[in-house]
From TrEMBL:
One of its GO terms (cellular component) is chitin-based extracellular matrix. Residues 1-16 form the signal peptide. Pfam families: Chitin_bind_4 (PF00379). The keyword Phosphoprotein does not apply. One of its GO terms (molecular function) is structural constituent of chitin-based larval cuticle. The keyword NADP does not apply. This is Uncharacterized protein. It comes from the Eukaryota. Keywords: Cuticle, Signal.
């Protein structure tokens, strides 16, 4: 019986794929097909981190991508956080220049740009219904049971 277990374990281990153990944690590199990737030069890069926690960075690349951000530590009742404001620009695949300005603080990330989607306008009948509801609130409803505590069992 022991021989059968030993032989079957030997067969299983010899048939197992252990190539991932031989290459360590390095991923298996696949050759890239097609033309070699073009490297984009960085035309300008600036960054500064102050001892008080404030920072500034900006960069610009030769393919017309640029970004800039300023931030500082901010104390809130919930704890400390970072408040930042900045912008980034690039050319879309369609050739349209895109510019986004943003503020990120205790109210979240708030981008502003012409390229961001906006909701459609509210239809006039919805606006009229909202005005009607504001002028004519519903009367408070009566409880279904007159004495709900009578049904409690504790």
């Amino acid at each position: 019986m022991y021989k059968l277990v030993f032989v079957s374990a030997f067969i299983v281990l010899s048939a197992a794929d252990v190539s991932h153990l031989l290459r360590g944690n390095r991923p298996l590199l696949k050759p890239i097909s097609g033309p070699a990737p073009k490297f984009i030069a960085i035309l300008r890069s600036d960054s500064d981190i102050s001892p008080d926690g404030s920072y500034h960075y900006s960069y610009e690349t030769e393919n017309r991508i640029s970004a800039e951000e300023r931030g500082a530590l901010k104390s809130l009742p919930e704890g400390a956080g970072t408040a930042a404001q900045g912008s980034y620009q690039y050319i879309s695949p369609e050739g349209i220049p895109v510019s986004v300005q943003y503020v990120a603080d205790e109210n979240g990330f708030q981008p502003q740009s012409d390229i961001l989607p906006t909701p459609p306008p509210t239809p006039s009948y919805i606006l009229r219904a909202l005005e009607y509801n504001a002028r004519n609130p519903e009367p408070p409803t009566k409880p279904f049971l007159k004495n709900p505590s009578a049904f409690r069992r504790f």
